[in-house]
Amino acid sequence: MSIYLAIAMGGSLGAMSRYWMVTTTHQWLGTGFPYGTLSVNLLGSVAMGFLSVLLLERFHLSDEVRLGLLVGFLGSFTTFSTFAIDVLQLGSDEEMLKTIVYVALSVLLCVVGALGGLLAAKQMI
Q1: For burial by CB atoms within 10 Å, which of 49, 58, 63, 106 has the most?
Q2: Is the pLDDT of residue 56 over 90?
Q3: Predicted model pTM
């Protein structure tokens, strides 16, 4: 299988998973705050940190599998462009405190999530 096909397949599954998670999160928590985007970015960051270590240092999988998961699936599952639009929409609604909280939580939690995933994977190898 070509690397491009693996990335495309992973990307398709990641995009569908993101849509499901965002809509499900909005059903549970409402749409007054971008919980869905925050959730996928946090989960994706943890998974990226965790899987990047496991797939590069412990399990020597083919480039197709590794790139299909990391670039394809996680690349389309997480979405900085949606984050940017959420920030602009919150800001345009004059919800400055919500906007600042969302930006701070997104950056802090996703970086800490990636670090947590990375450290968890390191403990396994």
Answers
A1: 49
A2: no
A3: 0.80
